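Changelog note: in this version the structure field was regenerated for every chain. One regenerated record is shown below for reference.
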Amino acid sequence: MLEKSLGIVLHIIPYNDKIAVAHLYTERYGRTSYLFPQGTGKKACMLRSLFMPFSILELDIDRRNSRELQKIVEAHTVVPLQNIYADPVKNAEALFLSEVLCQTIKEPEPNPQLFTFIARAIQVLNLMEEGKANFHLCFLLQLCNFLGFSPNMESYRPGYFFDMLNGVFSSTRPAHSYVLDSRESEVFAQLTRMDFNNLRYFRFNRGERNTVLSRILTYYRLHQPGIDELRSPEILRAIFD
Protein backbone atom coordinates (compact mmCIF):
# COMPACT_ATOMS: atom_id res chain seq x y z
CA MET A 1 0.00 0.00 0.00
CA LEU A 2 1.47 3.35 -1.05
CA GLU A 3 1.57 5.82 1.84
CA LYS A 4 3.21 9.16 2.54
CA SER A 5 5.16 10.42 5.52
CA LEU A 6 7.84 12.89 6.45
CA GLY A 7 11.08 11.30 7.58
CA ILE A 8 14.40 12.36 9.10
CA VAL A 9 17.48 10.41 8.02
CA LEU A 10 19.42 8.95 10.95
CA HIS A 11 21.81 6.36 9.56
CA ILE A 12 22.52 4.19 6.52
CA ILE A 13 24.19 0.77 6.90
CA PRO A 14 25.54 -1.03 3.78
CA TYR A 15 24.20 -4.57 3.46
CA ASN A 16 25.84 -5.66 0.21
CA ASP A 17 26.91 -4.15 -3.12
CA LYS A 18 23.32 -3.57 -4.18
CA ILE A 19 21.37 -2.84 -1.00
CA ALA A 20 21.76 -0.79 2.17
CA VAL A 21 19.42 -0.30 5.12
CA ALA A 22 18.33 3.28 5.85
CA HIS A 23 17.14 4.08 9.37
CA LEU A 24 14.72 7.01 9.52
CA TYR A 25 12.59 8.64 12.17
CA THR A 26 9.24 9.22 10.53
CA GLU A 27 6.30 11.39 11.46
CA ARG A 28 3.69 8.67 10.95
CA TYR A 29 5.50 5.46 11.91
CA GLY A 30 8.24 6.39 14.35
CA ARG A 31 11.60 4.67 13.90
CA THR A 32 11.50 2.64 10.66
CA SER A 33 14.03 0.84 8.48
CA TYR A 34 13.96 0.92 4.68
CA LEU A 35 15.65 -0.87 1.84
CA PHE A 36 18.01 1.55 0.14
CA PRO A 37 19.60 0.87 -3.29
CA GLN A 38 23.39 0.95 -3.54
CA GLY A 39 25.49 0.97 -6.68
CA THR A 40 25.87 3.37 -9.57
CA GLY A 41 22.36 3.28 -11.04
CA LYS A 42 20.44 6.49 -11.64
CA LYS A 43 17.94 5.93 -8.82
CA ALA A 44 20.64 4.88 -6.35
CA CYS A 45 22.70 7.99 -7.08
CA MET A 46 19.65 10.24 -6.78
CA LEU A 47 18.61 8.78 -3.43
CA ARG A 48 22.16 8.86 -2.10
CA SER A 49 22.32 12.60 -2.68
CA LEU A 50 19.10 13.04 -0.66
CA PHE A 51 19.81 10.65 2.21
CA MET A 52 22.33 12.64 4.20
CA PRO A 53 22.27 12.64 8.03
CA PHE A 54 19.50 14.95 9.29
CA SER A 55 17.88 15.29 5.85
CA ILE A 56 14.14 15.97 6.16
CA LEU A 57 12.33 14.13 3.37
CA GLU A 58 8.84 13.61 2.04
CA LEU A 59 8.52 9.89 1.40
CA ASP A 60 6.28 7.75 -0.78
CA ILE A 61 6.43 4.35 0.90
CA ASP A 62 5.33 0.93 -0.29
CA ARG A 63 4.33 -0.04 3.24
CA ARG A 64 3.34 -3.56 4.24
CA ASN A 65 2.92 -4.56 7.87
CA SER A 66 4.28 -8.03 7.14
CA ARG A 67 7.68 -6.61 6.14
CA GLU A 68 10.40 -5.67 8.59
CA LEU A 69 12.15 -3.56 5.95
CA GLN A 70 9.89 -1.20 4.03
CA LYS A 71 10.46 0.10 0.49
CA ILE A 72 10.81 3.74 -0.53
CA VAL A 73 9.25 4.46 -3.90
CA GLU A 74 10.03 8.19 -4.08
CA ALA A 75 11.76 10.74 -1.85
CA HIS A 76 11.87 14.52 -2.04
CA THR A 77 13.72 17.09 0.03
CA VAL A 78 11.41 19.17 2.22
CA VAL A 79 13.98 21.62 3.59
CA PRO A 80 17.29 22.24 1.75
CA LEU A 81 20.14 22.00 4.25
CA GLN A 82 23.06 23.36 2.22
CA ASN A 83 24.34 25.39 5.18
CA ILE A 84 24.69 22.30 7.35
CA TYR A 85 26.58 20.26 4.77
CA ALA A 86 28.83 23.15 3.70
CA ASP A 87 29.84 24.11 7.26
CA PRO A 88 32.35 21.73 8.94
CA VAL A 89 31.06 22.48 12.46
CA LYS A 90 27.38 22.05 11.57
CA ASN A 91 28.10 18.95 9.49
CA ALA A 92 30.01 17.34 12.38
CA GLU A 93 27.14 18.14 14.75
CA ALA A 94 24.61 16.65 12.34
CA LEU A 95 26.64 13.43 12.08
CA PHE A 96 27.01 13.21 15.84
CA LEU A 97 23.38 13.93 16.72
CA SER A 98 21.98 11.61 14.06
CA GLU A 99 24.16 8.85 15.54
CA VAL A 100 22.84 9.62 19.04
CA LEU A 101 19.24 9.59 17.80
CA CYS A 102 19.80 6.30 15.99
CA GLN A 103 20.89 4.70 19.27
CA THR A 104 18.32 6.31 21.56
CA ILE A 105 15.09 6.21 19.52
CA LYS A 106 13.96 2.62 19.12
CA GLU A 107 10.16 2.88 19.21
CA PRO A 108 8.21 2.03 16.04
CA GLU A 109 5.33 4.15 17.36
CA PRO A 110 4.92 7.78 16.24
CA ASN A 111 5.68 10.64 18.61
CA PRO A 112 4.58 13.86 16.89
CA GLN A 113 6.08 16.12 19.57
CA LEU A 114 9.49 14.50 19.31
CA PHE A 115 9.41 14.55 15.51
CA THR A 116 8.50 18.26 15.53
CA PHE A 117 11.30 19.03 18.00
CA ILE A 118 13.93 17.29 15.88
CA ALA A 119 12.71 18.78 12.58
CA ARG A 120 12.62 22.31 14.00
CA ALA A 121 16.05 21.90 15.61
CA ILE A 122 17.55 20.81 12.28
CA GLN A 123 16.18 23.92 10.60
CA VAL A 124 17.57 26.10 13.40
CA LEU A 125 21.02 24.55 12.97
CA ASN A 126 20.88 25.14 9.24
CA LEU A 127 20.29 28.89 9.70
CA MET A 128 22.20 29.78 12.87
CA GLU A 129 25.73 31.18 13.03
CA GLU A 130 26.36 32.64 16.48
CA GLY A 131 26.59 29.94 19.11
CA LYS A 132 26.56 27.06 16.65
CA ALA A 133 29.41 25.31 18.49
CA ASN A 134 27.03 24.82 21.44
CA PHE A 135 24.10 23.50 19.41
CA HIS A 136 24.75 19.81 20.10
CA LEU A 137 24.95 20.40 23.87
CA CYS A 138 21.61 22.22 23.91
CA PHE A 139 20.01 19.59 21.67
CA LEU A 140 21.07 16.72 23.95
CA LEU A 141 19.79 18.43 27.09
CA GLN A 142 16.44 19.21 25.48
CA LEU A 143 16.18 15.69 24.04
CA CYS A 144 16.25 14.32 27.61
CA ASN A 145 12.74 15.74 28.09
CA PHE A 146 11.39 13.49 25.33
CA LEU A 147 13.36 10.41 26.37
CA GLY A 148 12.11 10.54 29.94
CA PHE A 149 15.20 11.32 32.01
CA SER A 150 15.30 15.10 32.22
CA PRO A 151 17.28 16.30 35.28
CA ASN A 152 15.18 17.46 38.24
CA MET A 153 16.17 21.13 38.31
CA GLU A 154 13.82 21.94 41.19
CA SER A 155 16.27 20.12 43.47
CA TYR A 156 19.21 22.39 42.55
CA ARG A 157 20.81 24.67 45.12
CA PRO A 158 24.21 26.40 44.90
CA GLY A 159 26.89 24.07 46.27
CA TYR A 160 24.86 20.89 45.70
CA PHE A 161 26.16 17.78 43.92
CA PHE A 162 24.45 16.43 40.81
CA ASP A 163 23.61 12.75 41.22
CA MET A 164 23.70 11.58 37.58
CA LEU A 165 22.41 8.12 38.45
CA ASN A 166 19.16 9.48 39.90
CA GLY A 167 18.95 12.76 37.97
CA VAL A 168 18.71 14.96 41.07
CA PHE A 169 20.86 17.44 42.97
CA SER A 170 21.86 16.57 46.52
CA SER A 171 23.34 18.47 49.46
CA THR A 172 25.56 15.46 50.28
CA ARG A 173 27.82 13.57 47.92
CA PRO A 174 26.24 10.27 46.80
CA ALA A 175 28.09 7.05 47.64
CA HIS A 176 28.44 6.01 43.99
CA SER A 177 30.89 7.50 41.48
CA TYR A 178 28.37 8.94 38.99
CA VAL A 179 28.33 12.40 40.50
CA LEU A 180 29.36 15.93 39.52
CA ASP A 181 31.15 18.01 42.12
CA SER A 182 29.64 21.33 43.21
CA ARG A 183 31.43 23.38 40.54
CA GLU A 184 30.52 21.00 37.69
CA SER A 185 26.98 20.84 39.04
CA GLU A 186 26.73 24.62 38.88
CA VAL A 187 27.87 24.58 35.23
CA PHE A 188 25.42 21.77 34.44
CA ALA A 189 22.56 23.73 36.02
CA GLN A 190 23.48 26.76 33.90
CA LEU A 191 23.50 24.60 30.77
CA THR A 192 19.91 23.53 31.35
CA ARG A 193 18.94 27.17 30.79
CA MET A 194 20.23 27.02 27.21
CA ASP A 195 17.83 27.23 24.33
CA PHE A 196 18.43 27.69 20.62
CA ASN A 197 18.01 31.47 20.97
CA ASN A 198 20.67 32.13 23.60
CA LEU A 199 23.53 29.79 22.65
CA ARG A 200 25.84 32.68 21.76
CA TYR A 201 25.95 33.74 25.42
CA PHE A 202 27.47 30.44 26.58
CA ARG A 203 31.20 30.53 25.94
CA PHE A 204 33.52 27.56 26.39
CA ASN A 205 37.07 26.84 25.39
CA ARG A 206 37.92 23.56 23.68
CA GLY A 207 38.64 21.65 26.89
CA GLU A 208 35.52 22.90 28.67
CA ARG A 209 33.23 22.02 25.77
CA ASN A 210 34.70 18.51 25.51
CA THR A 211 34.31 18.01 29.27
CA VAL A 212 30.68 19.15 29.16
CA LEU A 213 29.95 16.78 26.26
CA SER A 214 31.64 13.89 28.07
CA ARG A 215 29.50 14.45 31.19
CA ILE A 216 26.28 14.66 29.17
CA LEU A 217 27.12 11.42 27.33
CA THR A 218 27.82 9.70 30.65
CA TYR A 219 24.40 10.83 31.83
CA TYR A 220 22.83 9.42 28.66
CA ARG A 221 24.55 6.05 29.05
CA LEU A 222 23.31 5.75 32.62
CA HIS A 223 19.71 6.24 31.48
CA GLN A 224 19.93 4.61 28.04
CA PRO A 225 22.02 1.47 28.71
CA GLY A 226 21.83 0.31 25.09
CA ILE A 227 24.03 3.12 23.79
CA ASP A 228 27.18 1.73 22.19
CA GLU A 229 30.46 3.56 21.88
CA LEU A 230 29.83 6.59 19.68
CA ARG A 231 32.34 7.32 16.94
CA SER A 232 31.29 10.83 15.97
CA PRO A 233 32.36 12.69 19.17
CA GLU A 234 35.92 12.31 17.89
CA ILE A 235 34.89 14.19 14.75
CA LEU A 236 33.52 16.99 16.93
CA ARG A 237 36.70 17.16 18.99
CA ALA A 238 38.81 17.33 15.83
CA ILE A 239 36.65 20.11 14.39
CA PHE A 240 36.78 22.19 17.57
CA ASP A 241 40.55 21.70 17.83
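Spot check on this record: The beta strands are 2-14, 19-26, 30-37, 56-62, 70-77, 161-163, 168-170, 179-180. The chain has two domains: 1-78, 81-151+192-241.
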